[in-house]
Amino acid sequence: MKIFLDTANVEDIKKYASWGIIDGVTTNPSLIAKEGANLEKRTKEISEIVDGPISAEVISTEAEGMLKEAREYVKWASNIYVKIPMTSEGLKAVKVLSAEKIDTNVTLVFSLGQALLAAKAGATVVSPFVGRLDDVSQDGMALIEEIVQAYDNYDFETEVLVASVRSPRHVLESAIIGAGIATVPPKILDELITHDLTDKGLKKFMEDWETVKDKQ
Ligand code: G3P
């Protein structure tokens, strides 16, 4: 399973990239705005820290504008995935970009229908937003299960990138289902690595070692 970091905060990206388990980074206009950053400058900074795919989202809502932005974004670094919203204009742009071998991340996906169309258009990855579905009393993880099954049925090359992750459970259930990628906010990574019994066990080991270290 690939783990991407879902943030535009450079310090967080450096911190978690040092763990050696980050395979990519996803940003979006809200995450860039949260940092008060310039999209191009921040995307280039991130691409210097993490070798894997770095997702940067287009701002245009029309296909022609999306194409213009996408062709500019991929000049910034060699590991750019262009984030395209799941709209009819976005679909047109993904089809063209796929033919130009430009990697795309189709975002704001909330249904199997949207995921199927994105795969048919040649999306590199699709981003179903599980947390936002849960927020409106729908089952985000059930959608992931449906998409993974449907993609397997037709050998689609498009990968499922589970997004809008709000808890470690979203990551763990994604792994059980077999989703290829989860993009995880920094605080969820902290929750994934931490367990009280690990902390207690290590503390006990160190205390016990103190009683015998002089005999080594
Ligand atoms: O990658 C998409 C993610 O950043 C959206 O998360 O919590 O705003 O739904 P959230």
Could you name the key traits of this structure?
216 residues; alpha/beta; TIM Barrel; eight-stranded parallel barrel; 11 helices; binds SN-glycerol-3-phosphate
Topology:
Layout (H helix, E strand, L loop, with lengths): L1 E5 L3 H8 L6 E3 L2 H7 L3 H11 L4 E4 L5 H11 L6 E6 L2 H12 L4 E6 L2 H10 L3 E4 L1 H6 L4 H14 L5 E4 L5 H10 L3 E4 L1 H8 L2 H15 L6
Parallel strand pairs: 1-2, 1-8, 2-3, 3-4, 4-5, 5-6, 6-7, 7-8
Helix pairs in contact: 1-3, 4-5, 5-6, 6-8, 8-9
The site of SN-glycerol-3-phosphate has 11 residues, from helix 7.
Quickly describe the structure:
This protein is an alpha/beta fold. The protein has helices at 10-17, 29-35, 39-49, 63-73, 88-99, 112-121, 130-135, 140-153, 168-177, 186-193, 196-210, and strands at residues 2-6, 24-26, 54-57, 80-85, 104-109, 125-128, 159-162, 181-184. The protein has 11 helices and 8 strands.
